Amino acid sequence: MIVRKFLQWVQTASASQRADGASALARAYLYADLDPEQKDEAEQALTSLLDDPSPLVRRALAESFASAVEAPHHIILALADDQSDISSIVLGRSPLLTDSELIDCAAIGDTFAQSAIALRLRLSPPVAAALAEIGGCEALISLAINPGADLPEFSMHRMVERFGGDGELREALLSRPYLPPALRSDLVAATSKALLAFVTGCDWIPAERAERAAREACEKANVIIAVASEAEAGGPRKLVEHLCASGQLTAGLILRALLSGNMSLFEAALCELSGLPVKRVRGLAADWASAGFAALYRKAGLPEKLLPAFRAALDAMSVCGPDITGSARLSRQMVERVLTACETAPRGGFEDKLFAVLRRFEAEAAREDARLDAPAFLQEEVASAVPPVVVLDEHAGEAEIAAAASPVLALNGGSENDRNGAPIADTREIEELIIDALSIDAHAADAPAADVPMIDVQMIIDEPIVATSSIDMPLLDTAVAEVSVIDASVPEAQVPVVEALSGKISVEVRKPRPSYAIDLDELEAELLAA
User: What is the tens place of the pLDDT at every residue in 380-389?
Assistant: First the structure.
């Protein structure tokens, strides 16, 4: 009787009133204690509301039934086929929709509906694969960032194949917790292709130069991926199979891997190209000067004129291999040995190209070494300019004070304690020591502001001292930063770094900036005189 009165009321109510009524009736259907006859009548009334011309009513039904397990299945399916702002509510949350129904809805839905399916809390591999095949770019981005989506590897390859030029999709795929090496290689190739099209479209550099730079960047990235894939079983071999299938396994890539000390990629490439087992390939590669290795090289289909370069690289590997094995960057020492070996060979068109490639490898290796060595040189230079300051506590013996390098500061360790009972260093004494050590006039107005000396304070203490990350220094008109290393008996939560006794404290001292008073009248007079 109540449901019949509801249907009569619907005929005259406004759209917003009908939406409120539909929501109330849906909640009554789900949670009220209705007898079977009343429930059937309520279900018929709710089904009739699917034909309501107002989307507000159908949206109210979708919001009420979206997460309900006991919702009528035919109503859920009808709402899933509604306009996208209504269907997305049900597609993203309803546990009643099967995989086949989700795939059908994805096939006929727009990007908004597809994204709702892609962001479901749990997404099965068949639905994820279907979305990867038919979904739009925005839906695939949603699929990639969903940690609950069971996304097969072949589907991720298909996503890169379809929309690899979209940077947001590549970033979303890279945010997933694990990516197979082959997929990372595809992402590198897609990024290289997109950047190549951009720079050539802008006419910034010639097309030939851009193509060579992109090709060499891809080869370098694949060597890095191969090194990272060694942690998983058969990682390099799977990567090589993918590179061979995609046409990226070239003699230049194999030579780069060998000159980087990456024997796993080199051996996997020879296994893939020759069809021989890895033990056989490894044995022949160890005897690189033999005719057996030459036969293996020819069976792999590599260029005959590159055989001396590969032999020279294997020779260099046997000499300096332990220092570079497993590296992801070119070894300058190995490249130079190969260059030396190739300089004595007859020169021609192909040999000149090989020599040019090796020279580029040498330049790349030199730049990589410079990038790694420059920060170390800078740290050594700063460390050599740091004046040593030894800080002893008040219990230090006379022999320790006499043996310590000057200047020396005796800490007043028992004057103050923190709340855990550990003595706190007297910062004023440290401050005065810094001034004495650097010969700084704390009140000099003409001190250069750019001079920022660093002091290493070596502490020899009998009791733990609590340090803070910043200590005010009124005499220096500044603050001490990076006060860190304390005795190992202090709990880790109390200090930034806990190390053994006699650690180091880094103290940054910034000299006060000079202040100048300018007489504007005097300046104006000088300008008029000039």
Answer: 555 554 444 4
